[in-house]
Amino acid sequence: MRIGLLTEGGYPYVSGDAGLWCDRLVRGLGQHEFDIYALSRTERQEDRGWVRLPPQVGRVRTAPLWTAHDDGVVHGRRARRRFAGAYGELVAAVCGGPRAAGVEGPGDPADGADTEADRFASALYGLAELARDEGGLAGALRSENAVRVLERACRAPGAPRTARTARVPDLLTVAAHIERTLRPLSLDWYEDDTLGSADLCHAAAGGAAALPGLLARHFLGVPLLVTEYGVHLRAHYLAAATLEEGPAVRALLAAFHGRLATEVYRAATLITPGNAHARRWQERCGADRAKLRTVHPGMEAARFADVGEGVRGSRSADPGTLVWVGRIEPAKDLISLLHAFAEIRRAEPGTRLRIVGAPAEDPDAATYLTHCKALAAQLFPDEAEGVHAVGDNPVSFEEIGGPEIPSLAEAYACGAVVVLSSVVEGFPVGLVEAMLCGRATVSTDVGAVVEVIGGTGLVVPPRNPRALAEACVALLRDPERGERLGAAARARALELFTVEQNITAFHGIYLEIVSHSPVRRVVVDDEGEPLPFGVPAEVHVPGCWTETRFTGEHRPARAEGAPVRATVPAPVPVSVGEGA
User: Which residues contact 312 (CB under 8 A, 6 or more apart)?
Assistant: First the structure.
């Protein structure tokens, strides 16, 4: 079958979100064809190029979200009225104001969450149809008219008090953000020879990445699968908390992304969260529980096999060393870890802490690392074994790739206990890596930690240095218990969190979706025979419930035009970067 893989800020670019997972998925399902439709976030991301693509990738279409090109489209009076009506309904649904005259208003029985969701969806597809008819919305969404329509929605009776306080700079900020998110509406991806040729669309995230899938479903009837390992709406909430925007901007953007998430979940044929934590978020945003299939991310277990199985020659654990591995940023709460380590040192004076990682791409991350190093120097003065020896700090900050820690597996191998001290976490990849290495773990109860660890490690409340210290001391004083927990953790990780189980799960989900999808076209090979997966599986099963025949007079339901012959995939584009 042919899969339209939809991404935002990730695959096939060298840097970005979910790139490694997408690459493993595409390479693992070599029996299928993949067409990639990618939205880039920054110019730097595009300049760094693509990973090396496998031969099953037929074509790649890209579009930038970081810049808006002037498409030269000038709308006439009728198109402007049409835009004002659709955009006005969309922002009114975001603001929660009353509907246009002649339609139910606040207080009517039909007015509620479902009504506003329908209103938002109708307006969204109305804008998409306008873009298809007129050639794009780049200018209209950035126009003064769009800002005025947004202002009227914010000032309308029934709008929230926060929205009514929005000033002109706030309105400009919100309008610009909505325009950026809705840029996929103006793309030329929604024809029979692009997304219309796919058997299903697979969005690797919610938000803007799923918008092409929504339009392919709306215009062409292509089923949509949405995978979220980090819930897009949750990520927006966390990012908004760090911005210096006013309450009106934060409230309006939160409402907009909430409405968009609701429509994505409602339109999707199936939704695959990566863990129960993401699943709960999706259900709260309106996802139908019957559509949800939890598929845990897959990790490459082979790279940790030597450490996990204790192969001779692999680095053996230091029984008095704690290890922390990850990106150094405020969400990891290394401050609490350092204060906890101060209590650990009082109980076990010979213990050492190795912090392995580098600052995240966020500019504030480097400042945070400097602060952590200064705190470590203050809490733990250099120690020396004798009067003639050079002092050494029990806390070390290291990076992978040096002579002491040449690989990621070696980082986990150098300590007996691996610590995770985060206050915010989605799916804890580092925790799974530690489990594959057979290490005992102490983690904070955030995100999907409890679901991942499943009783094979110790879990404590976040922002509680004393509890973190007591759990670490308990494992340091009982190494046999740590070995038992590590062995159980590795067995659990091999059962649930490998690349193989991830690929197998998605292969089954693809077949399930296609087998229940309506027939949109007849696809035949060079000999005129129906191509497998060109039509749903049910039409091949004899029975009175279907009258489908592969003849000129009896075509499957909703099929249009002559049969489509299978074509050879286009050559793979020349890659710029190396594979992940």
Answer: none
Cα distance between residue 335 and residue 390, in whole Å: 27
Q: What are phi and psi of 565, to 5 degrees?
A: -85, 145
Per-residue model confidence as pLDDT tens digits over 355-400: 999 877 777 888 999 999 999 999 998 765 555 555 578 999 999 9
How far apart (Å, rounded) are the C-alpha atoms in residues 387 and 389?
Answer: 6
| C-alpha dist (Å) from residue 91 to 94, 116, 346, 475 | 5, 11, 58, 55
With b meaning 16 or more CB within 10 Å and e meaning fewer, what string describes 419-455?
bbbbeebbbbbbbbbbbbbbbbbbbbebbbbbbbbee
3-class state of residue 201 by DSSP:
strand
Taking the model in full, what pTM does it have?
Answer: 0.81
Higher confidence at residue 266 or residue 543? Answer: 266
Residue entry with tokens 């208003």: 105
**Residue-wise pLDDT tens digits, 293-351:** 999 988 999 999 989 887 544 455 788 999 999 999 999 999 999 999 999 999 999 89
Q: Could you tell me the CA-to-CA distances from 47 to 17, 380, 576, 579 in Å, in that order?
A: 16, 44, 9, 16
List alpha helices for 96-167, DSSP H: 113-134, 138-141, 144-155, 161-164
What is the arrangement of strands in the sheet containing 57-64, beginning at the earlier edge strand?
57-64, 33-40, 2-8, 200-203, 224-228, 270-273
pLDDT in tens, 86-143: 999 999 999 974 443 333 444 444 445 678 889 999 999 999 999 999 888 888 998 9
Question: Are residues 51 and 14 in contact, defined by beta-carbon separation less than 8 angstroms?
Answer: yes
Q: Which two tokens stand for residue 264?
A: 């994505």
Q: Give the range with max mean pLDDT: 5-9, 43-47, 365-369.
A: 5-9
Element (H, E) at 271: strand 270-273
Among 2-6, 112-116, 278-282, which stretch is predicted with the lowest mean pLDDT? 112-116
3-state secondary structure of 569: coil
The closest alpha carbon to 168, from 144, 204, 190, belongs to 144
- 439 Rama class: left (phi>0) / alpha (psi -120 to 50) / beta: beta
- The tokens of 338 are what? 């350092």
Distance in angstroms (rounded) separating the CA atoms of residues 391 and 383: 4
